[in-house]
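Entry 12.
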Amino acid sequence: MKLAGRRAASFAALLLAVAASAARAEDYVFRPSPQTDLNRMFRVETTTGEVGACQYAVKDGTVGVTLCFSAGEGAGPQEPGSYDLIASSHQQEGGVYRVERRTGRMSACYVLGEQVVCTPQAR
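Predicted 3D structure (tokens):
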């Protein structure tokens, strides 16, 4: 019985460790910029709302490079929630909207210089 009890306790500890690891895993949503002549992809971390972006660029003599833009003003972590990205249907729009599905708050996010910036959230 003692061995079975130890195995059960070890198994329970393993399950808790796996569950804790899964809870820390980051989930992202990706959306392209609606601008038709721009090869840019935005990402949002679905719990924190942090937004970043990457785009392809031509570099002579190579296959090209991936340029990434980190979170700047307003694009960093927000209050925990359920975040997504929505692209408008405006073909000249270079940004996307970060939406918080539970509250309906949203902000416009775009690349400014070398960072992604977002307007203050509003509803």
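Annotation: The helical segments are 2-24. Residues 11-23 have pLDDT under 50 and may be disordered.
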